[in-house]
Amino acid sequence: AQSVTQLDSQVPVFEEAPVELRCNYSSSVSVYLFWYVQYPNQGLQLLLKYLSGSTLVKGINGFEAEFNKSQTSFHLRKPSVHISDTAEYFCAVSNRGGTYKYIFGTGTRLKVLA
Amino acid sequence: EPEVTQTPSHQVTQMGQEVILRCVPISNHLYFYWYRQILGQKVEFLVSFYNNEISEKSEIFDDQFSVERPDGSNFTLKIRSTKLEDSAMYFCASSKGGANVLTFGAGSRLTVL
Lengths: 114, 113
Known about the structure:
The complex is a heterodimer. Chain A is mainly beta.
């Protein structure tokens, strides 16, 4: 079975400061990893994905994440946040096979302060 | 860019009533999914559907739930007799499978009174 842990339920940060949202996963098989963003009252939008290759992946809106297999982590980072980045961020893991279903973490609410 | 379309965007129903949530996945996708998000909580997997049958379902997906792909384009989730705890946002998603990502719809908010 797979699981995803997002230890931080809420992360407040000042505008233009850097931010890191943590994600750790557990799986007995190789996985794909994803970060999704959910703005208030909206659906899920893909930020970035790790499928294979380079462990540093870049996504939309200036976000990037690094896959660390030894630490089973996939932390999301942005060097300088904007007010508009205020949203819920979900990390997800998927099997490399089977039904390819995603298992989501509990989410981290990023609140960017002026 | 192709989208996954869900209807209705919001439905209010009385406890015990049947509800059908509809989804039009992306046309060349092969895998279809329903997820649920209770307000303020995480997104939970309900069911996956491939080759016209359920390929996997979660513990949440009990006998009250069913899915169907009636006409090759729509993908529906039926809740036979709704309960208060079924109130949630329901997301449909589709994928080509493999390393292809899931594309999610905007969601259908179900409120059970």
